[in-house]
Every structure is written in structure tokens, then in C-alpha cells.
Design a protein that fits this description.
By secondary structure, the chain is an alpha+beta fold. The chain has three domains: 3-43, no CATH class; 46-100; 105-231, Immunoglobulin-like. It is built from two helices and 13 strands. The chain has helices at residues 28-43, 49-99, and strands spanning 3-4, 11-12, 102-107, 112-115, 118-128, 140-151, 157-160, 164-168, 171-174, 189-192, 197-207, 212-217, 224-231. The longest helix has 51 residues, at 49-99. 15% of the residues are buried.
Length: 240
């Protein structure tokens, strides 16, 4: 590194003891100290601003992301371990609910049963391999119950397919929603005015080799219900 005379500012040779321009003796200790200061100042320079920004952003983004990934892995493992048990508990609860009630009336196709001011007549039960764009899974078919329903009470009544449940060969199943109507008849789901009569159907997806089907109707939280019993006639392709 070049050095200069402290008196006149003339550049000096590295080994010069005197300034040839003004004759002033060179203070080597001072020059050495100044040189060391320059070296130390160079050493004390910190990281550039962009590096500091990257480090801060990395801490802000990467640490929460790592925590989120670890938490996600934990949740997935919990779901794997507990999910099946939870679904089994829900199924058991549903089965207990739909089975623990008193059957106050029972019948079969062509019979009329009444409960809570609503009269249900099961006109027919039909089997379908498909309904419009609706197709059951392989090995299954749609079993559809058609009703004439009348409100015999003195107040409005909600009648819905969601209040029905099925017991097919001792296995409890829920209703199936079908998009569209069947021969102009829609899913049974309507608020009936006093004295009003309507038609509707209730559908289930069942194995094609089913034998006995118990169709039950029970209002939510009610401890009473009605049941229609149907037997699968193997010789009939469409009609039960």
C-alpha cells in the first residue's frame, strides 16, 4: 500500500526514511499504525445488506413452513390411526339411533301406515340397474319405493326421504339421493299443507342378491316409527 509524507503529502518509497521533497523524517511507527488501522477497518466490514435480508426472510418463511410440515405429518398420522376408529364410532352411533325406537305400525306393498298425522301408502317397489344418468356401483342396483303421502293433521308437516332408513339382510343402510325424477315423480321431500296429498319416492343402493328389506320411517329424535317389509322376488327382473 502506498504511503505519503505527513508534511507535504508527497508519495514516498516504501523503505524511505526521509521525504526527498521537503526533507522531513518519516515516522515509521505512525505509518505502521495507520496501515494496521486500514487493515482492521477492512476486517471489521460486516455482511452485505442483501445477505442480511436473505437471512431474515429465510427465518421468517422457512421456520413457519418447517413447523407447518411437521404439524401436517403429525395430523396425517393421527388421522391414519384414529380415522378408522372414528368412522366406526359414527356408524355404531347411527345404528343405535335408527334401531332404538318403537314400531307402532307395520305393513308391506299396498298397505297404508300412519304416524304423527301423516299417512304413507307404499304403492310399489321397483329395481333399477340405472336411473337416467345415475348408475350404482358394480354389483349393486337401485331399489326404489314409491309412496302416496297425505297430511291428515291440522298443521303443516315436513315429509322427507331423509327420515327413512333401510335394513337389508340385517345390514343397516341409508337412503340414496337420485338426481332427477322417475316417470315424473321426485324424491320424497316436501312441506305438506293440511289435507295435502303428494307422491314421492325413496331410493336405496343395494346388492343385487338381496333377499329381505325393512323400510322404516321415523322423525328425527322421535322414539316411534313405522316399517314396511319387502321380499325380493327372484323371478321378477324389475318389480319387487
Amino acid at each position: 500500500m502506498a504511503k505519503f509524507c505527513s508534511n507535504c503529502g508527497k508519495e514516498l518509497n516504501d523503505n524511505a526514511d526521509i521525504c526527498l521533497n521537503c526533507g522531513v523524517l518519516i515516522n515509521k511507527e505512525e505509518s505502521k499504525i495507520n496501515s494496521n488501522k486500514n487493515i482492521n477497518n477492512s476486517k471489521k466490514k460486516g455482511l452485505p445488506t442483501w445477505a442480511i435480508v436473505l437471512i431474515v426472510l429465510g427465518c421468517v418463511i422457512l421456520i413457519p413452513l418447517i413447523i407447518f410440515i411437521i404439524f401436517g405429518i403429525f395430523v396425517v398420522n393421527v388421522v391414519k390411526d384414529e380415522g378408522g376408529k372414528y368412522l366406526d364410532d359414527v356408524k355404531d352411533y347411527y345404528n343405535d339411533y335408527v334401531e332404538n325406537y318403537e314400531v307402532i305400525d307395520e305393513g308391506t306393498i299396498g298397505d297404508t301406515l300412519e304416524i304423527d298425522g301423516v299417512r304413507f301408502t307404499l304403492s310399489e317397489a321397483l329395481k333399477y340397474d340405472s336411473i337416467g344418468d345415475n348408475t350404482p356401483v358394480e354389483g349393486k342396483e337401485y331399489l326404489v319405493f314409491f309412496f302416496d303421502v297425505e297430511n291428515t293433521s291440522s298443521e303443516e308437516k315436513l315429509v322427507t326421504y331423509l327420515n327413512f332408513s333401510g335394513l337389508v339382510d340385517d345390514e343397516r343402510i341409508m337412503t340414496t339421493f337420485i338426481f332427477g325424477d322417475i316417470d315424473g315423480i321426485t324424491n320424497l321431500n316436501k312441506n305438506l299443507q293440511v289435507g295435502e296429498i303428494t307422491k314421492g319416492y325413496v331410493a336405496f343402493e343395494v346388492d343385487k342378491n338381496w333377499e329381505n328389506f325393512d323400510l322404516s320411517y321415523r322423525k328425527l329424535l322421535s322414539d316411534k316409527g313405522i316399517t314396511f317389509y319387502v321380499v325380493n322376488e327372484k323371478n321378477e327382473k324389475a318389480e319387487v
